[in-house]
Design a protein that fits this description.
single chain, alpha/beta, Rossmann fold, 2 domains, globular
């Protein structure tokens, strides 16, 4: 079974892209299963189940970062999709923690970015872009050709090896090359590993300490004057 993990900031059009992809995969006799990971509300699983009749599930991360939640549940999700006799597991994650990367070795990683979000966005999102296989750029009809070119250049600056695919997710234009990438992707490995390194540590804020000011915390801390920056990958 193959695995596709689709991440990206909110409102970029992840669900619209996946909706067109799922329809085309089914026409190719490739049976998808769909898992949605979000913080506290999602209905994409219900929409896809009604429209396509495919196995779907959703998980609310709640107090966890969605990308952390994905790591926790992905093994069981693969088992569930195999029992459903699916050919590919498609995971859509909210991807709100831009410092993390939700992708796994042996799987296909899509990051969906909207061209209307500003030409410098690719410089801001970190490993969710730089460790992806494909950057899917949506809403290309809303910006000028010059802005599209600058946006592409910014992506290439951050992630030279990432494939860039521009799509109009509203009408399904540019979806076929994405489907081809899924079809040609390898089978997922039994023992999956995160692609890239997780953040360097867990801060005391993450575990519930509410006091304001770095002096009240320990572990990985940062003061206003200390801007030492760890980039990881």
């Amino acid at each position: 079974m193959k695995i596709l993990i689709c991440a990206g900031p909110a409102t970029t059009g992840k669900t619209a892209v996946l909706r067109h992809m799922i329809g085309k995969l089914i026409k190719l006799n490739i049976q998808p299963a769909f898992l949605k990971i979000d913080v506290q509300y999602a209905e994409e699983d219900e929409i896809f189940a009604r429209e396509f009749g495919i196995p779907t599930r959703k998980v609310y991360s709640g107090e966890l970062c969605p990308d952390h939640c994905s790591v926790m549940v992905l093994g069981e999700a693969m088992q569930w999709a195999r029992k459903a006799e699916s050919s590919v597991l498609i995971v859509e994650t909210a991807g709100l923690c831009l410092r993390c990367s939700p992708y796994v070795d042996g799987g296909l990683g899509f990051v969906v970015l909207e061209a209307t979000s500003g030409m410098n966005l690719p410089l801001k999102v970190g490993p969710i872009l730089s460790l992806a296989d494909v950057a899917v750029v949506t809403k290309i009809d809303r910006v000028s050709q010059a802005e599209r070119e600058v946006f592409r250049a910014r992506i290439q600056e951050v992630a030279p090896s990432v494939k860039i695919r521009e799509v109009n997710a509203l009408y399904g234009i540019g979806i076929d090359p994405l489907v081809d990438l899924v079809v040609s992707s390898p089978e997922a490995e039994e023992q999956m590993l995160l692609r890239g390194n997780p953040p360097v540590g867990t801060c005391t804020i993450c575990v519930g300490k509410k006091e304001v000011g770095w002096q009240s915390h320990f572990g990985v801390v940062r003061s206003l004057e200390n801007q030492t920056f760890y980039r990881g990958e």
